[in-house]
Design brief:
alpha/beta, Rossmann fold, seven-stranded parallel beta sheet, two-stranded parallel sheet, oxidoreductase activity, oxidoreductase
């Protein structure tokens, strides 16, 4: 029997999730992977005793609970959880309906919470484990017109992960929030992007941002998803916990710019803003 760690990866039928699953299996790890359609996983990944494809609706807590139960039953344990599933909702704030915004949060935030809620008891019982919550550098630096809802979900994932890291640490569980830049996957060219149902002509900057992502950035992303997978695999084995894991030179550059912007804003109003005590 393999002594390699058992990984549980959501949103694994395409993009970074699929690449991660493929690289994990090459390295001899045991992997349970989820998708809305298990057939998509079976088509993308060859059958193996080390691979468990699972059809899961992340917005359905019982579906998530059952998937985690099957993983532990099949492999006998679960060591690393990767909350990778998600999609991008495009549209200016006033263009998006309540239904569109809530659907985005249901998948990107509440779906992730369903996984955490039912994975934590297993990891806590083992007094070990590593959780990777895949956010985005847009969850740290949010100045992308037309991506407000997506950005809001990723900011939520970052904050949630920071708190979870503190909650889980006493039980030997490590938590990392992953903030990638642009990686060359099919995220910008697939069903992972949703357009607003009622777009308004007044938002030229939103239309330009959308077109730039789908027509110019798509296919030219600087990041190699195989190398991103290698970083996650290395971090899962590393002795030191890294809570904030930026991925890609572009993510590092954007994060540095955001830090400088915040520092400048703070300095601009420091005297007035700190003179608020009784």
């Amino acid at each position: 029997m393999s002594t390699k760690k058992v990984w549980f990866v959501t949103g694994a039928s395409q993009g970074l999730g699929l690449t991660l699953v493929q690289e994990l299996l090459k390295a001899g790890y045991r992997v349970a992977a989820t998708s809305r359609k298990a057939a998509a996983l079976r088509e993308a990944v060859p059958a193996s005793e080390h691979f468990l494809p699972l059809e899961v609706d992340l917005t359905n807590e019982e579906s998530v609970k059952q998937a985690i139960r099957e993983t532990v039953s099949h492999f006998g344990s679960m060591d690393v959880v990767v909350n990778n599933a998600g999609y991008g909702q495009l549209g200016a704030v006033e263009e998006l309906t309540d239904e569109e915004v809530r659907r985005s949060f249901d998948v990107n935030v509440f779906g992730l919470l369903h996984v955490l809620r039912h994975a934590m008891p297993h990891l806590r019982a083992r007094q070990s484990g590593h959780i990777f919550n895949i956010a985005s550098v847009a969850g740290y630096s949010g100045n992308f017109p037309g991506w407000s809802t997506y950005i809001a979900t990723k900011f939520a994932v970052v904050g949630l992960s920071e708190a979870l890291a503190e909650e889980a640490a006493p039980f030997g569980i490590r938590v990392s929030v992953v903030m990638p830049g642009y990686f060359r996957t099919n995220f910008l060219a697939s069903g992972s992007l949703a357009q607003p149902a009622h777009a308004l002509d007044v938002y030229a900057n939103v239309r330009e941002s959308s077109a730039a992502h789908t027509e110019q950035i798509n296919g030219n992303q600087p990041g190699d998803p195989v190398k991103a997978a290698a970083v996650l695999m290395a971090q899962a084995e590393a002795p030191k916990q890294v809570v904030h894991l930026f991925l890609g030179e572009d993510a590092y550059a954007r994060a540095a710019t955001q830090m400088k912007t915040v520092t400048t804003d703070m300095a601009e109003v420091a005297t007035m803003a700190t003179a608020t005590a009784f």
